[in-house]
């Protein structure tokens, strides 16, 4: 969606994507990407202060953001 000033409404796009993932599960095209990002973040979390849970959340968030940004 585009706002009148030409800026993309990424919040609505994220809501749509997360809702689609929740409804379709593994059948949604974004699910494998987000799960891969979470796994990479989990592995990185073991090496960085913050732990694996925060790493997994960060990885999933980054993967979702890059998926929506396209």
What does this structure look like?
This protein has 70 residues and is mostly helical. Helices cover 73% and strands 0% of the residues. The protein has helices at 10-24, 31-47, 51-69. The mean pLDDT is 83.
Task: Give the gist of this structure.
With 70 residues, this protein is mainly α. It is built from three helices and no strands.
What is this structure's SSE topology?
Layout: H1 10-24, H2 31-47, H3 51-69
Helix pairs in contact: 1-3, 2-3
Q: Structural class per helix/strand content?
A: mainly alpha
Question: Which residues sit in consecutive blocks of at least 5 with pLDDT less than 50?
Answer: none
* Largest sheet features: none
When the domains are counted, the total is 1
Task: Specify the overall morphology.
Answer: globular
Quote the distance from N terminus to C terminus.
12 Å
Computed CA radius of gyration, to the nearest angstrom: 14 Å
* Number of DSSP helical runs: 3
Give the beta-strand count. Answer: 0
SSE sequence, one letter per element: HHH
Beta fraction: under 5%
- The level of helicity is over 70%
Nearest-integer average pLDDT: 83
Please give a handful of descriptors for the protein shown.
70 residues; 0% strand
